[in-house]
Amino acid sequence: MATQILQGFMTCERCGNCCKNAPAIELTYADLLSIAKHFSIPVEEARQLYARSANELGSGKIAIKNAKPCMFYAEGAGCEIYDHRPKACEQYPFIGASSLSMGAITIRKTCPGAVTALETLEKIKEHTRTCQVCKTYGSAVCEEVKKILGRKI
Ligand code: SF4
Ligand code: SF4
Ligand SMILES: [Zn+2]
């Protein structure tokens, strides 16, 4: 929910920073399945080829094997698995975007496209602190949030 709202005002400048310099990119089981589907290989093979354990993300978590640059990043062409990229990449540069609470979301400052997004996010956070609609039903349905976003969603 929050991801859709946030992506609505995020303008990607296609600098590639996120794919060239990302910290560990978490893979969920669903991400692995999706990558396996992309390459038409069994999920276990995808795990062996592309995943490593990533204790820095939490115990038992896994991440894409090479992150700097990401092993799926091709200079000039971008992400080779774009339609099957992990959830963490979909949500970039927003951290915690799977949360229902806008207040829990932060933005990676290494993303130039995030500068405007950050200003908008701060306005939304300020608004959701006192808005009963946001607190009760979530910011996705709040008309005031839509106004702040300039009705981009
Ligand atoms: S760092 Fe941000 S602006 Fe640059 S390519 Fe990634 S998402 Fe787009
Ligand atoms: S999987 Fe794709 S979008 Fe994600 S970091 Fe790698 S190249 Fe970038
Ligand atoms: Zn609201």
Write a compact overview of the structure shown.
The chain has eight helices and seven strands; from the N terminus they run H-H-E-H-H-E-E-E-E-H-E-E-H-H-H. The protein has 153 residues and is of the alpha+beta class. The chain has two domains: 1-14 and 93-153, no CATH class; 23-91, no CATH class.
Task: List descriptors.
single chain, 153 residues, alpha+beta, 2 domains, three-stranded antiparallel sheet, 8 helices, 7 strands, elongated, binds iron/sulfur cluster, binds zinc ion
Write structural notes for this entry.
The protein has 153 residues and is of the alpha+beta class. It folds into 2 domains: 1-14 and 93-153, no CATH class; 23-91, no CATH class. The protein contains 8 helices and 7 strands. The strands form 3 sheets. The protein has a 3-stranded antiparallel sheet. Strands 4-5 form a two-stranded antiparallel sheet. A two-stranded antiparallel ribbon has the order 6-7. A hairpin with an 8-residue loop joins strand 2 (51-53) and strand 3 (62-64). Helix 3 crosses helix 4. It is elongated and about 50 Å long.
Topology of helices and strands:
Elements: H1 2-9, H2 17-20, E1 26-27, H3 29-39, H4 43-50, E2 51-53, E3 62-64, E4 73-74, E5 78-79, H5 87-91, E6 94-95, E7 106-107, H6 114-128, H7 132-137, H8 143-148
Bound molecules: iron/sulfur cluster (2 copies) and zinc ion (ZN).
